[in-house]
Every structure is written in structure tokens, then in C-alpha cells.
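Summary for the steering committee. One of the milestones for this cycle was to obtain a three-dimensional model of the protein with iron/sulfur cluster bound, which we needed before selecting residues for the alanine scan. The sequence and ligand used are listed below.
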Amino acid sequence: MPPETAPELVRGIESCRLCAPDFARTATAHKPRPVVWFRPGARILIAGQAPGLRVHEAGRPFWDASGRRLREWLGMSEDEFYDLTRVAVVPMAFCFPGYDAKGGDLPPPPRCAATWHGQVTEALGEMPLLLPVGGHAHRWHLGAKGGVTETVAGWRSHAPRFFPLPHPSWRNTGWLKRNPWFAAELLPVLRARVREVLDEG
Ligand code: SF4
């Protein structure tokens, strides 16, 4: 996609309301608010799951405790992370999917990736570093068939272009304790690769 059409794509996603009827039926009964954070030319793609409530309210990706943990994993400052010329954040759904009746997170609506991801991928072009975060993104970007632990544990077969990551949510604090190899082995290599890609750009 030529660069001049990318702003149109961004505006098209920002005005998307395809999921409005579904979101109205959730416990949160919220309206769609797409959080669109990419520009052609970025070098690192963070492929997350979907905005949480705080991100929905702020309109800025990973603007929460998960984001602080993710930036620490990547060894990136807030300024670097939110530099659109270097980092793109493209989740499996651009909007907060809402909560179910028990207060659990609803999954990203599949129609979002089906509707938008092909065009976004074309707009961004080949990126030197892609970080699928969480099981939905592992399946979409890597064709992963197993669970999150198995996919992340197999990171060496995807590096240095892809690094599958678990979600940095506080809910995964137990997972991080049970899998100390993640901090000891994967993160140092990931941080070095992030620095290399940022320095090259
Ligand atoms: S989640 Fe995606 S498809 Fe659904 S309203 Fe938001 S931008 Fe549109």
C-alpha cells in the first residue's frame, strides 16, 4: 500500500463501529473505541490481544500496568515505546471487547483481524521485529497450535524476527514465577534484539 493511503486506513479503523451491537450486549455495554497505533516505517510490531478497560479509557495502547511490565521486558523507555516512527501496536482487536457477566475479559472479536489485519500488514510492510503477545496473536502470526507456554518456550525457533511473549498482565505473575527461563534466557536476547533494531532504524 502506498504511504499516502495509510492515513486513510487509520481513519477507516478509527471510525469502525462493526462490533457496536456485540459490545452493547456485554456487561460493560460500552461503545467501540478503536485504539489505532501504527504508521508505515515503524520497525517493531507489538501484536497484542485487545485493549483493556484502562487503555479503552485512555485511547493509548499499553497505558496500564501491563504496559509498564512489557516496556521493562523490552528494555524500552516510555518515549521509545510511544514513538510511532519506531513502534507499531496492532492487537487482534482494536477495541476493548468488554467483560462477561462474571467480570472476565471477553476475547477479541475475530471479525476485527479478519476485517483489518490484511490491510494493516500491507501498509506496514516487512518488519524486522514482530512480537506476538498472548495465545490469540501466537495463533494468528505464528500458526501456533499449542498453548502459550509451549509456544513461548519454543522462542528460539522463531527468533530473531519473532519473539512470542505471554501477556504481561498481572494475571501472569504466577506464570512468570513458574517459568524462570523466560526472564533468564529469553528476555536478555529480546532486549539485545530490540536495541539492535532501534539502532539500525
Ligand atoms: S473491534 Fe475492530 S472490527 Fe470491532 S468495532 Fe473495533 S475496530 Fe471495528
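Key point for the committee: The two ends are 21 Å apart (CA to CA).
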